[in-house]
Design a protein that fits this description.
Blueprint lengths: L2 H7 L15 H9 L2 H12 L3 H13 L3
């Protein structure tokens, strides 16, 4: 499973992102370079947020090009 798939399955992307091709090439490259520890840390931190904070995070990621 790719880093994108792992993050996608964790629900970390806004609804507009359904496949890796929806992301900017720079973002795709950055996600691909993340280590498993970094991926796990991102998911762990995200899951500790309440639903409002998760929604705000998704909106922020969308603005940032994720």
């Amino acid at each position: 499973m790719s880093n994108f798939d792992t993050l996608y399955n964790a629900g970390m992307f806004p609804s507009a992102v359904t496949k890796e091709a929806d992301l900017d090439p720079t973002v795709r490259d950055t996600i691909a370079r993340l280590s498993s520890d970094e991926i796990n840390a991102l998911i762990s931190a995200y899951k500790k947020l309440d639903s409002t904070a998760q929604s705000n995070t998704q909106a922020f990621l969308q603005v940032c090009g994720f």
